[in-house]
Amino acid sequence: MASRRPSSSCFRFLVLELVLLLGLLVLSPPARGAGMFKVRRKFAGRSPTIGDLRAHDTRRHSRILAAAVDLPLGGIGIPTDTGLYFAEIGIGTPSKNYYVQVDTGSDILWVNCISCRRCPLKSDLGVELTLYDPNASGSGSLVSCEEKFCVSTYGDIPGCAANLPCQYSVMYGDGSSTSGYFVTDTVQYNQVSGDHQTKPANASVTFGCGAQQSGDLGSPNSALDGILGFGQSNSSMLSQLASAGKVKKIFAHCLDTVNGGGIFAIGHVVQPKVKTTPLVPDQPHYNVNLKAIEVGGSFLQLPTDLFDTGDRKGTIIDSGTTLAYLPEVAYKALMNAILSQRSDLSFFTSQDFLCFRYSGSVDDGFPEVVFHFQNSLLLNVYPHDYLFENGANVYCVGWQNGGVQSKDGKDMFLLGDLVLSNKLVLYDLENQVIGWTEYNCSSSIKVQDDKTGAIYTVDAHNISPGRRLQLGRSIFWLLVTLVCCLIY
C-alpha cells in the first residue's frame, strides 16, 4: 500500500490541477538543457462546477501520501471557467502519444498497458486513449526484480529470480489502485536551445506499465492514460534524468489565472530572483516551516505547536491542490478575522462552500492574508485570490477546514493553487529549498544552461483547449498537478 503522501484535502478555487509540465531534458550528449511541452486543460469544452473541483480535491488528498526545460501551460485556473490540466507525452519507438496527469505529490510515471484489465478505453474528456505495448516499441524492455532500479526502489524482494518482472502496486486513499510492472523506454521532448528556441531530445526512463486498475482509475469519467509523478524520490522521472546528468533537480512554475496558461521550466531560474525557505528534511511532500499568519495587519493568536504536529512536520506546498486547507483552530481564527467586520453580509452554503452576495471590489472590502515562513519569506494572499465569484455578485470562500474534509487532514496545513497562482514558485531540490515571488505569469523568465552557462528566455504559454496537441518533433506535457498519489 502506498504511503508516500499523507492523506489530506486540497483544492483551490482557481482550480488549476495544475500541472506542472514535466520536461524531460536530454540531448544525445549528456548536456543539461531545456525541454518544451504543451498542455491542455482537463475540462476543455465544458465548465466544471465548484462541486467538480471539491470532488477532485477530495480524491486528490485522499491520495496524497505524501539544463532547463520549457513546459508550456494551457487553460485558466478559475473553478467556474476551466479546471484541471493534463499533458501529452511521447513514449516508445516509434513514438506514440499519451495523455497523463502530472503529480508533484507522487513519484513514479505509469501508463495503461495493452494487457491491462479494467483500464478505461474511452474518456469523457474528449481525448483518444492509447494502451502502451512494450513489445511494439523498438526501444522498450522489461525491468527484472534483480535490476538496480527495482532493488534501489524496494530493497531485496522475497522470491526474486532471474527474469521475474519488477512489479509495482499503488493503493490510493479513495479506494482506487493501479498495479503492474516496470519497463524502460524512450521518452521524447524538446530541449531549449536558445531564446524562444528548442530542438528535439529524448531520454531513457523507467516507468510503470499498468496491468490492472480499480476504482476511479478504471472509469471513463475524466480518464487519462496515466499519471506522471514529479516527487523527490529516486524513482521519479526528474530524479532519473538528474542521475543521468541530463538535468538539475530544479524546476519552477508560474500559474496564470488572468490570461490562462503560464510557465513551467526545469532548470536554474536566474530571473526573476526568488527568495527561498528551507524544505523540512525527510518529508515525502514539499514541506516548509510556517511561523505565523497575519490578517489585515494583525497576527492570529494560535497555539505555538500548531505549525508542527506529530509526524507531519511543516506546511505542504502543493500545486496539484486547488484550494488551501488549514487545521480547524487556524481555519476558525482566520475566517473570524476576515469576516468579523462584515456583519452586513448574509451567508449561505453552495455545494458545501460558504458563500455570500456582494457588489463592489472584494479587494476593497476584505483584508489581505499573509503567511510568514522561515527565513522571513512571505506569501501574500489577496481577497481576489481567496474569494472566487460563483455567479452574478456571488462570492464563495476558498479557505477550507481540513478537519472537516478528512480525519487525516485535521492537523494539516496544505496550501494549493489558491495561494500559489500568479506567483513564480521555485523548487530547488539541489539545495533543498523552495521559494516564490509575485510575478506576471503571462511574461517570460530566464533560465541558465548549466553546461554552457548560456542564459535563455522561456516564454509563457496558453495552449488553445480547442485543438489537439501535436507530437511530431515536439513533445508536450503537463504536470497535473497533480493528483496526489501514494507511493510505497
UniProtKB/TrEMBL annotation:
The keyword Protease applies. CDD domains: pepsin_A_like_plant (cd05476). GO terms for molecular function: aspartic-type endopeptidase activity. One of its GO terms (biological process) is proteolysis. Residues 1-33 form the signal peptide. Residues 85-437 form the Peptidase A1 domain. It comes from the Eukaryota. InterPro entries: Aspartic_peptidase_A1, Pepsin-like_plant, PEPTIDASE_A1, Peptidase_aspartic_dom_sf, TAXi_C, TAXi_N. Keywords: Aspartyl protease, Glycoprotein, Hydrolase, Protease, Signal. The active site is at 103, 318. Belongs to the peptidase A1 family. PANTHER family: ASPARTYL PROTEASES, EUKARYOTIC ASPARTYL PROTEASE FAMILY PROTEIN. This is Aspartic proteinase-like protein 2 isoform X1. It comes from Canna indica (Indian-shot).
